[in-house]
Amino acid sequence: MNSRQSPLFFSYTYKFLHEYLVKDLGKSEKTEISYTDALTLFRRYSTNEHSLDIDKLQFSHITKDFILDFRSWLIAKQGNKPQTANQRIAAINSYLHFAAGEDIALSSVRISIATIPMLRAEKPQVEGISLNALKAIFDAIPNIPRGRRDLAFLVLLYDSGARISEILTLRTEDLQMDGQYPHVHLFGKGQKNREVPLGKSAVTLLKGYIQELQNTEKLSSDLLFHLKREKDIGPMSYDCVSKFIKKYADAARESCPEVPVNVTAHMFRHAKAFHMLENSIPISIISRFLGHANISTTMVYAKPSIEMIRNALEHSQGIEQKAKKKDYSEYERRRLELCGIRK
Description:
Shape: globular
CATH topology of the largest domain: hpI Integrase, Chain A
Mean pLDDT: 83
Strand content: 5-15%
CATH architecture of the largest domain: Orthogonal Bundle
């Protein structure tokens, strides 16, 4: 394709994101945010790595090597896992498919990029966050307006065990904090909704945060958490949340070595599930709490902690001593239980 005849790459992004995805395909707001994030990162990559800003990047620049280099940049410089990088590339592919429908001359670009194979992504093993580490992260957040917003966000993220996408799209009306059973109404994957109870500390923080919004911004956005840039108000992005989590985790690690090196938003959800498990809440209840369609998905959180193993072994050793005088049936049952198997 002649570069002088090639349209700008971002010529169709607005129509793709706000008309095609939402109106034509009926995709959720979360999907729109995810695709927006992918295209935003692609713009940063083309600008920073190739000096091709939004008014210079053309479809003629988009080659297989260009996209492969973008994928490498996501992993090396953005810290994306292979699975996340695959999702970003899939979003770019979807956009190219749409653009080719708008301009058939772009079909060759779409076809060449569609041949890129996905990276092999191993099943993620999520590192846990201890209660001490959580407290250290929360304590590291400054008591200023933005800090109070971030603290409310992270406490709600942990307390509800929600996915970050569920928190980013929450509206003030989704919170029911008065009455005997305060809760939040979450909109999960596959348009599945659930109500999750809220603890007293979370309710107190959220009420204070909302009151502050009412006093300063008159709740100019119905989104519970949003960004304000000059006169524009919009949803917070994954990137924004990742940045402030990293900042507070790095500060907390100076006083609490238990804070993991790379703290992510999903680790708060993992921590909540794990702490529920440590408190002997049945896995079936945890599965419903997290909004999992299949209980097998919840089993990733069922890995015992060192403390749980130590307590279980001590209990088993006590049974073993009694078994020497009686029989080994109960001791054997406990050993099998620790291994996750039955007789």
